[in-house]
Amino acid sequence: MRIIIAGCGKVGQSLAERLTDIGHEVTVMDKNYDHLSNVTNSADVMGFQGDCTSVNNQVEAGIKKADLLIAVTDNDEINMLTCLIAKKAGECQTIARIRSPQYTDEIGYLKEELGLSMCINPEMVAADEMVRLIQIPSALEVDTFAKGKVSLIGIEIPEESVLDGLAIRDLSGKIGTNSLICVAEHDGNIVIPRGDYVLHAGDKISVTLSMSDVSTYLNKIGIKARKIKNILIAGGGKISYYLAKKLLALRVNIKIIEKDRARCEELAELLPKAMIICGDATDKKLLEQESVEDMDAVCGLMHQDEANIMLSLYMNKVNPKAKMITRIHRNSYEDLVTGLQVGSIVSTKSITADYIARYVRSMQNSMGSEVEALYRIMDGKVEALELNVGEDFTQVGVEIKDLKLVNNILICCINRKGTIIRPGGRDTLEIGDSVIVVTTNTGINSIHEIIKS
After folding, report:
1. How many whole angstroms separate alpha carbon 319 and alpha carbon 338?
2. Which end of the chain is more exposed for a tag (fewer CB within 10 A), N or C?
3. Segment holding 209, helix H or strand E
4. Above 50 in pLDDT, residue 368?
5. CA distance 4 to 39
6. DSSP secondary-structure letter at 428?
7. pTM of the full predicted structure?
8. What does the DSSP 8-state code read for residue 181?
9. Percent of the chain with pLDDT over 90
């Protein structure tokens, strides 16, 4: 596909790298030469220096031959105008990043009036992910499939867990819950485990199970489930506002620490049930005054990555039982902090890139959208997808044990008209099913591609 990305910030760069990796022809646009160079040096893309709100510049960049334009500049209004021009000048599909809370309640109207194929609010989507992480404090990652009926949770096996030294095939006898371990990481090596794979304390695993079974499962493997009541949010930006609003609806106690007094006053009006504190969230004395040792969860959502990382490391020292969430902006920091005690890492650029990449994949399918959901787990080294089974699937009715699956693919779950099936060798795939698979391969767009040709 021919794709134009307007905006060469962190999200634009992440998208360009992701889309070129799976074979798309990408052109990036930006008025700033340095920003443009950063992307063209990191990904195999064409660069065009110009104004994305100019019809002439869009035409010169190739909008008339483009299949899709993605507008991810830092300005919502520019993104919307860019998409409107692209729709008129090129008749291509368009995606806009729209972040401002003032547009949140108008997204449906804007999407229809501007002819947008998709619009995404990264901060709101990130807030949704953090809410899931807070609801399951012991999880490193939480992703949902089958319209919320199935969860894929990432956890670390604790010391003295029943899983330590246990082979995968013996799990059902020990645990008893309707779960499946899909991915395991031991000493940095990631595998799609078979029945003879032996688990160890300290391994990171991804498990599929229903939300209703999560607490029971965690208790059985030695992770005591706890309820979150008191939450500290460091930083008062858009993402903090969205997160606090969602958490207050769950009736938890929220404290927000923000440096800027004017922003504090604004938050106090927007979130009257939250406690807003004007101060520096990296100030040890302030943290002690606000009893951080009693917090059940702390979210580092400040603008500076270094401040978020330092806060998380400090919290791990004074309150190691608290659920920590650390927001990282810079690409170079994501790999650096892996292995540090900073809790769950959230990156809005990665979340945005995942959502848009999923939509791009669905566009490729002539029979309609086959990719229902797409997540990158285990630090982006594994993909988890929900794929639709269409009428053209030739292996309908074939038992799974007889399917010639591509290497490094595991079928984790089947959603059949709302009924969740944990597949065994005698189960089959039927028309209308949605199938959850995990794989270390990249670029899968269709259920057909999990079968060897």
Report:
1. 20
2. C
3. strand 204-209
4. no
5. 13
6. B
7. 0.79
8. E
9. 55
What average pLDDT does the segment 18-34 reach? 91
What per-residue confidence (pLDDT) applies to 234? 97
Average pLDDT over residues 372-380: 80
Place of tokens 């059940």: 296
Say what the pLDDT of residue 350 is: 83
Per-residue pLDDT of 113-166, as tens digits, reads: 888 888 888 889 899 989 988 988 888 888 888 878 888 999 999 998 999 999
Within 8 A by CB and 6+ apart from 302, the residues are 234, 235, 281, 282, 308, 311, 327
Helix (H, G, I), strand (E, B) or coil at 243: helix
The reported pLDDT for the residue numbered 364 is: 62
Instruction: Give CA separation, 332 vs 14, 98, 140, 314, 357, in Å.
Output: 12, 25, 20, 22, 21
Q: Using CA atoms in the order 392, 395, 400, 402, what is the torsion angle rounded to 10 degrees?
A: -160
Give the integer Cα–Cα distance in Å for 288 and 313: 15
> Edge-to-edge strand order for the sheet containing 409-416?
371-377, 382-388, 434-439, 409-416, 419-421
Confidence class of residue 278 from pLDDT cuts 50, 70 and 90?
very high
Burial 30-48 (b: 16+ CB within 10 A, else e): bbeeebbebbbeebebebb
Measured between alpha carbons, how far is 206 from 152 in angstroms, rounded to an integer? 6
Q: Which long-range contacts (CB under 8 A, 24 or more apart) does 84-91 make?
A: 84/114, 84/115, 85/53, 85/55, 85/58, 86/4, 86/58, 87/114, 87/115, 89/55, 89/58, 89/59, 89/63, 89/64, 90/58, 90/63, 90/64, 90/65, 90/66
Predicted pLDDT of residue 374: 77
User: Could you tell me the maximum CA-CA distance found in the chain, to the nearest angstrom?
Assistant: 67
Tokens of 324: 């920590």
Say if residue 439's pLDDT is above 60. yes
